[in-house]
Design the sequence.
């Protein structure tokens, strides 16, 4: 690859304002939401049109330049971390809502449109877009598709894959694939399911058609406080056993409750070992019936305090502590490392107990704030990056937690993606034949492996080296060596 | 139904077929022979690979071997007041879980309770190389690696033989009731689209012969207020939705060509004697009009038309490459992925 030649070709296809090459201006692109891992790209392209985007991909394909697609850069697994010798293809300027089709209850948008902007644009019609990742103010729909983003309400309303009907995708082969549309099924393989969560490795999304839902007319939010994690975990299973699927069901442990209370004073009971936040939605008559049923279940499981919020203000107050939980951790420790494993719900109490034991043996505090309803844990490991060795220790412990999730019948990532962060744990979850199958799927779309190389799927070499090295304590020799 | 693990034999047969380039035609209970008409090869039956591997009602997940009859799964779920959200058809009373997933056909609840793909959480499968692979799992959220489990839905076994599938189940509603409204076809479309923009407990619609049937499901209070919202009269035929689901309405039994059209739900109607499901997104059109005119109509409304009772085909170059990625020697259900697609 000749950098000057590629730069020249890009300049002849894109206006100067769409190309970043100045070191200072490149700096913000060196990392995404996983800030511990950085690499400055040598160029960032920010196309304003689909034609420009295709030109960038064509030039890169011809000159074998790796491309790292990037949405809003809020990802938590390093999926948008640049690669050496590669360019970053930012989609932030493709930010138009192309169509709001009320008859079909869909919106057609460009990938750089923010998640929340879709709901804001259709609110006047009583509609909204359901998936609500916690970064929804900032994150983009293209990134949501790449990561198959979830959120608090995906328990009832599904993940991105359940709420997207159509996609336009450009591949490194230069093809534009129109996948799905405004109807419910189209012939052939379900490429839509394949693209959702493929971490920008199979194609670049240039258009998304999303499903719009009517706003539920009634809502109630409840808080239940427990003296033990086990009681709270049992309440979660009881709710499902009774046939209730809440709109959201979140859990916070003692450390998370303390941090949130110190930070926003949401009125959470400090004496609790765990609290559950449960949201029910639907029509008013249904909610009244369900509310009584759920309160009984929560009490039977041993809740010593229950708060109910019926109006929007009170509901916002109850949610406030949960929403502020991550920033609140900033007051407890200089840094935290957020994990994202999933487990079957019935294993909640056992796995939380095992995490507490790990916390003790590593000497690092862990706060748990997570989507209990779908078994998606977010242990936050607190550490101080300025203390030599603490980041390594936190990463090591995080890896152990994910292996615990796999052993419990779960997965190393529920909604944040593998990125560069969880490549080693992928070796635990998948065997060689499965990893080779992933590789062949990648090759079907990107034979030269130029699109987001080194992310999501570890190479067999990496896994076998790791397997051998676990014996020596899990520390990689030559940690600076690229191992994708 | 006896439980039997036939996975070792199934894996072995595919491995040998892969080496000898022997084409295989995978069959479950044989309930949908029209889907696999173009497939050539030695029959490989999954019907003896049966049994529920794990079912924990509080997890809302069931895992079963692919040859397990849907009937058995439905019965077990009903005992725990749960059901398969995608309401798969049981043609002629038959059908297996593996067949339902491979065909990817959902019933009347599709727009409200999700597709077959929406419910699939994980699969264990054998690819065309005879390798036994597991993708996804039993958890609700899982983004580790490409989602190769949901890709199997509707793939007709061309990417792999399904050994077992984990699917999400949903609680049975307390109450279910059907209202019927007498309307013209155009008004039926308009009415259904108006309903889509407000919160109503609708879980199925079917417009046929001038009558719009709408099923409401949920808590009793919710269904009652929903019935007020949609209007019309109570429709008292407990078997109606199973008849719609299993395609046993009189409409499906005629000799005239019958077309299935999948399109945006609000799309203009091609004629007034069209049956409508899925809020308008699935349409059945019995017409003697030439094929190219039917296809042109579907294209004009951004939809697709296909003869009812015909097999799906996979025709783009990308689909052909995907097939090669899973089954490089083309041994699994060969004939559906067209070789000319590689051009």
Sequence:
């Amino acid at each position: 690859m000749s950098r000057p030649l590629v730069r020249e070709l890009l300049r002849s296809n894109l206006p100067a304002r769409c190309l970043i090459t100045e070191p200072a201006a490149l700096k913000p692109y060196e990392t995404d939401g996983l800030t511990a891992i950085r690499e400055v790209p040598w160029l960032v392209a920010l196309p304003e049109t689909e034609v420009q985007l295709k030109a960038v991909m064509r030039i890169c394909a011809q000159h074998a330049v790796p491309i790292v697609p990037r949405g809003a850069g809020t990802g938590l697994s390093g999926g948008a971390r640049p690669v050496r010798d590669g360019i970053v293809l930012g989609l932030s300027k493709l930010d138009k809502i192309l169509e709001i089709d009320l008859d079909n209850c869909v919106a057609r948008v460009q990938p750089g449109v923010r998640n929340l902007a879709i709901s804001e644009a259709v609110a006047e019609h009583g509609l909204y877009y359901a998936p609500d990742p916690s970064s929804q103010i900032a994150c983009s729909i293209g990134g949501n598709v790449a990561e198959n983003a979830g959120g608090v309400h995906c328990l009832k309303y599904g993940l991105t894959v359940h709420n997207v009907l159509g996609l336009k995708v450009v591949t490194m082969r230069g093809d534009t694939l129109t996948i799905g549309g405004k109807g419910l099924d189209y012939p052939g393989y379900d490429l839509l399911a394949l693209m959702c969560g493929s971490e920008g490795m199979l194609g670049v999304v240039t258009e998304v058609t999303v499903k719009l839902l009517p706003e539920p007319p009634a809502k109630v939010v409840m808080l239940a406080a427990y003296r033990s994690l086990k009681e709270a975990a049992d309440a979660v299973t009881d709710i499902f056993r009774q046939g209730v699927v809440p709109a959201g069901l979140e859990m916070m442990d003692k450390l998370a409750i303390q941090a949130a209370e110190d930070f926003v004073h949401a009125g959470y009971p400090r004496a609790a070992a765990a609290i559950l936040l449960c949201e029910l939605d639907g029509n008013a008559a249904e909610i009244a019936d369900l509310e009584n049923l759920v309160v009984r279940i929560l009490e039977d499981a041993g809740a010593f305090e229950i708060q109910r919020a019926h109006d929007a203000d009170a509901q916002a107050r109850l949610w406030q502590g949960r929403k502020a939980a991550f920033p609140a951790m900033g007051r407890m420790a200089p840094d935290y490392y957020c994990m994202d494993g999933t487990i079957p719900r019935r294993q909640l109490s056992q796995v939380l107990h095992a995490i507490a034991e790990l916390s003790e043996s590593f000497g690092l505090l862990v706060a748990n704030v997570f989507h209990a309803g779908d078994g998606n844990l977010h242990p936050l490991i607190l550490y101080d990056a300025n203390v030599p060795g603490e980041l390594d220790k936190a990463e090591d412990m995080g890896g152990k937690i994910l292996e615990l999730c796999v052993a419990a019948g779960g997965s190393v990532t529920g909604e944040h993606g593998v990125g560069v962060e969880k490549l080693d744990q992928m070796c635990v979850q998948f065997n060689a034949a499965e990893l080779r199958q992933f590789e062949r799927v990648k090759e079907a779309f990107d034979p030269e492996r130029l699109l987001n190389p080194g992310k999501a799927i570890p190479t067999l070499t990496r896994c076998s080296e790791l397997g051998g090295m676990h014996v020596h304590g899990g520390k990689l020799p030559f940690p600076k060596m690229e191992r994708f | 139904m006896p439980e039997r693990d036939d996975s070792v034999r199934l894996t072995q047969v595919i491995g040998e077929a892969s080496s000898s380039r022997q084409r295989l035609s995978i069959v479950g209970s044989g309930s949908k022979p029209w889907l696999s008409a173009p497939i050539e090869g030695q029959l490989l039956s999954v019907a003896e690979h049966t049994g529920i591997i794990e079912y924990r009602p509080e997890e809302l997940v069931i895992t079963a071997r692919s040859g397990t009859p849907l009937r058995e799964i439905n019965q077990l779920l009903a005992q725990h007041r749960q059901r398969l959200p995608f309401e798969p058809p049981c043609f002629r009373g038959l059908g297996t879980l593996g067949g339902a997933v491979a065909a990817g056909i959902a019933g009347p609840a599709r727009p409200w309770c999700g597709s077959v793909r929406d419910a699939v959480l994980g699969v264990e499968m054998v690819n065309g190389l005879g390798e036994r692979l597991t993708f996804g799992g039993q958890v609700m959220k899982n983004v580790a690696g490409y989602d190769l489990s949901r890709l199997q839905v509707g793939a007709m076994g061309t990417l792999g033989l399904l050994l077992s599938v984990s699917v999400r189940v949903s609680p049975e509603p307390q109450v279910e009731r059907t209202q019927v409204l007498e309307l013209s076809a155009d008004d039926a479309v308009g009415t259904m689209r108006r309903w889509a923009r407000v919160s109503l407990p609708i879980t199925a619609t079917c417009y046929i012969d001038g009558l719009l049937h709408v099923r409401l499901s949920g808590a009793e209070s919710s269904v009652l207020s929903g019935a007020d919202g949609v209007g019309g009269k109570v429709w008292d035929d407990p078997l109606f939705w199973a008849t719609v689901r299993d395609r046993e309405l009189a409409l499906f039994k005629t000799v005239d060509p019958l077309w299935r059209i999948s399109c945006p739900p609000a799309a203009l109607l091609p004629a007034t004697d069209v049956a409508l499901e899925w809020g308008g997104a699935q349409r059945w059109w019995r017409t003697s009009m030439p094929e190219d005119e039917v296809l042109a109509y579907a294209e004009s409304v951004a939809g697709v038309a296909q003869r009812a009772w015909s097999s799906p085909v996979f025709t783009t170059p990308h689909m052909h490459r995907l097939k090669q990625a899973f089954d490089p020697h083309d041994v699994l259900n060969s004939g559906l992925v067209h070789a000319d697609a590689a051009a």
Observations:
- Residues 267 and 301 of chain B are 6 Å apart (CA to CA).
